[in-house]
Design a protein that fits this description.
homodimer; mainly alpha; 9 helices; DNA-binding
Chain lengths: 198, 198
DNA sequence: GTCTATAGGAAGATAGAC
DNA sequence: GTCTATCTTCCTATAGAC
């Protein structure tokens, strides 16, 4: 095996862990399976990370970063307010459908963190970032389109984040039932109503 | 130890497992800890259940039953439509605040089931029941209060279920931030808008 | 139906050669 | 920095006495 600097190996192992966990689930992913996925021996794993928990910390921060980037890109401002909401939600939704396992993983990691003493802050940070991402979008719309809210922006941001989260989980569990397109239409119209003037 | 019929022991062990899992998390709960929580030896566990998976199947169906009962009671019809939505959501929310660990457990069990081959149907059934619970409420309101929807009832039901689910998870992760009451007010108003005539 | 004792295996982490 | 081999611990599940 090539001899790489530790930082690079850590990156490789983190990405391998994300693939393995998305495929097999967090509890089923062992340090051995991660090392195998990365194509290195178990000892290399422990050379780069003191413990499995240290790796998982790296996984959570990395995947949360991925996720926020995806959402930020999907929800970028467009020509009109309605178009922003409709196209943004559609783009986000296309990503969920294309990568369901990765999205499932974000939920698993949240719960892993909440159940591991000393890791709760990682779960909280994850959900704070979701809300902040929506808050940024709202602020952009406020400035560029003169959006006015009848509810404080942080309230709307957290609500939209929670709603998106719930819809995503619902889809991941129940799958693409016949009614799903109707639900998305309803949600989109609903969201548009929430961020536009009454 | 008293000699009890198997069915009764199974009930005791299932309840003990729910307590242990709500306290320690699903992956941290072992057959040993469940037996200890129930006050019996490990062999009694394996006398009543062939395997840990068989117990978890019992846990999922039991806790989903609990949960649906809670939601159904919270969301029962009241004098007016607005009161039904407001009081119903408030009652549900009081339960979440009073028993956060149990609610957290429902999410963990969903993911456990989705990751265990042959158990996916338990997760789906869980979420189908959530949607059915809302559908029943809508049907009741339609009959007793002449409610009319501008969107098909199953669509609204699934949407409300997903929204409640997302808000609950958001609360469980981020806790009772100062803004939470405002969010609930927004949600309540929003829900009322969704089920009333335009 | 319940117990003590243990088989059998898999996981996280380490030792020491190269 | 990477490897093979191993230690230690903890789990699920079973055997067999009472």
């Amino acid at each position: 095996m090539a001899r790489l600097p530790s930082a690079e190996r850590r990156r490789q192992l983190t990405e391998a862990a994300i693939r393995a966990m998305a495929r097999d689930g967090v509890p089923n992913t062992t340090t051995r399976s991660i090392a195998a996925e990365a194509g290195v021996s178990l000892s290399v794993f422990h050379y780069c990370f003191d413990s499995k928990q240290e790796l998982i910390e790296s996984v959570i921060t990395t995947i949360t970063g991925h996720y926020v980037t995806v959402v930020k890109d999907a929800l970028r401002p467009r020509a009109t307010l309605e178009e922003t909401v409709r196209a943004g939600f559609q783009a986000y939704w296309d990503h969920v459908r294309a990568h369901p396992d990765e999205h499932m993983l974000t939920y698993e990691l949240t719960q892993y963190a909440l159940r591991r003493p000393g890791f709760e802050h990682l779960a909280r940070r994850q959900y704070e970032l979701y809300a902040e991402t929506y808050a940024d979008l709202i602020e952009q719309l406020r400035q560029t389109m003169g959006l006015r809210l009848h509810v404080p922006a942080p309230v709307v941001a957290r609500y939209l984040a929670a709603m998106t989260d719930g819809l995503t989980l619902n889809y991941l569990v129940l799958g693409d039932a016949a009614a799903w397109n109707d639900i998305l239409d309803t949600v989109t119209a609903h969201m548009a109503g929430l961020v536009s003037e009454p």
